[in-house]
Design goal:
The chain is built from 10 helices and 11 strands. With about 270 residues, the protein is an alpha+beta fold. Strands 1, 2, 3, 4, 5, 6 and 8 form a 7-stranded mixed β-sheet that branches. The two termini are about 25 Å apart.
Length: about 270
């Protein structure tokens, strides 16, 4: 049996630009966090996912793609323990897909190179290649081109808040309007802030171009975001509706835990 951990991510920067070949070009600065799904893999006579709530599951797609590509005369039984909220902007599904490719590669004798895993991951979704190695990285083009940031950095605490409602990534992107600006300099500053552990500057530089369309589409997110924005720095992860606070003070933690009991709340850290 092989076990893999599928870590969630947050976006320290998400720059969304023009549409090219049907997709928005992005500069997506992602960092893994200490929230994860657990997947185990065993050889079987068929490809099956236990505890499967979704008919069109990306984990099964990843397993079928891997087994087909390498003409493997076996199936796999996959068990998933789900901890990352779905449709939350934390890339839980993409991370599960990446973990599946890694898990099957170990299960069947490490037959795929990292490049081959990245190529398969790209077929599954724009965020999936990031989760082959799951390291702090700037992902560009559609988000599938992963540029790891190899400098060391210190971990820092974050608090996640997700309303019960969800957001459609497709809908959020559909109402986004690009203003023509270039934010690469600011992204490089964020990278420096993380490496230097300059939390104050990091808080002032983080941005997400999808915040405005997300605020228009989800009233729960809109209310909580604006409420907390008046008290602290708060940011959107991905297309939302999960928000995060960096190094939250105790009074903020207590306020969130008291007022938003019906939300998913987690105090964790970046990896």
């Amino acid at each position: 049996m092989i076990k893999e951990y599928a870590y969630a991510k947050i976006n320290l920067a998400l720059e969304v630009m023009d549409i090219v070949n049907g997709y928005h070009k992005v500069n997506n600065l992602m960092i893994p966090i200490d929230l994860y799904d657990e997947l185990t893999f065993e050889k079987s006579d068929k490809i099956e996912l236990l505890n499967n709530e979704f008919e069109d599951n990306i984990i099964l797609k990843a397993a079928k793609l891997f087994i087909s590509k390498y003409n493997i005369n076996s199936g796999v039984r996959i068990n998933l323990i789900k901890n990352i909220p779905s449709a939350a902007g934390l890339a839980g599904g993409s991370s599960d897909a990446g973990a599946t490719l890694r898990g099957l590669n170990h299960l069947f004798g490490d037959i795929a190179t990292t490049y081959e895993l990245l190529t398969m991951a790209e077929e599954l979704g724009s965020d999936v290649p990031f989760f082959i190695e799951t390291k702090f990285a700037l992902c560009d083009n559609r988000g599938e081109k992963v540029n790891p940031i190899n400098s060391k950095y210190k971990s820092f605490n974050i608090m996640l808040i997700k309303p019960q409602s969800s957001l459609s990534t497709k809908e959020v992107y559909s109402i986004y309007e690009y203003d023509g600006s270039n934010k690469l300099k600011r992204i490089n500053e964020i990278i420096e802030n993380v490496i230097d552990n300059d939390i104050d500057k990091l808080k002032s530089n983080i941005f997400n171009d999808l915040t405005t369309p997300a605020l228009k589409l989800n009233q729960d997110f809109n209310y909580i975001y604006n409420d907390l924005k008046n008290k602290t720095n708060i940011y959107l992860s991905g297309s939302g509706p999960t928000m995060f606070i960096i190094e939250p003070e105790k009074n903020i933690i207590d306020y969130v835990n008291d007022k938003y009991k019906d939300c998913f709340r987690l105090l964790t850290k970046v990896r």
